[in-house]
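Weekly modeling sync, notes
Attendees: S.R. (lead), two postdocs, one rotation student

Agenda item 3: backlog of single-chain predictions. S.R. asked that every request posted to the team notebook include the full sequence so nobody has to chase files. The rotation student volunteered to paste the first one in as an example of the format we agreed on. Action items at the bottom.

Example entry:
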Amino acid sequence: MTVKSTTIDEYLTTLPDDQRTALQDLRDIIRAVAPKAEECISYQIPAFRLDGRLLVGIGATQNHCALYLMSSSTLEACKEELRDYQTGKGTIRFQPDHPIPTSLVRTLIKARIRENSTQKSVRKKDAKRQR
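Predicted structure, as returned to the notebook:
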């Protein structure tokens, strides 16, 4: 039976050293760029919530680590910079010994913050129109 982690620290303790280090590095960058983001576990992976909305997640499988942008548009906007990484619908997969560069992670997190902020503004305007 697999024990589900309830905190990011618990999740990280289940990983091999190289993956734990790679994800802790991502965690540190995310916390530096979005210091008000709250840590949580969402969909059984470590995640960060800002202003009540999911910002990004991080995780590891047997074969790779991942940064979950939870946004295909942010991923698409940075696809050229991510050409050396395997990507999916909002996910960037990487090997612990070939991490995503800090400057690129910072750019991606900032893009997600802007995207969430824009979507939040649009929702507020839509809600006012419906009144």
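Discussion: group reviewed the output briefly. The mean pLDDT is 89.
Action items: rotation student to repeat for the remaining queue; S.R. to check formatting next week.
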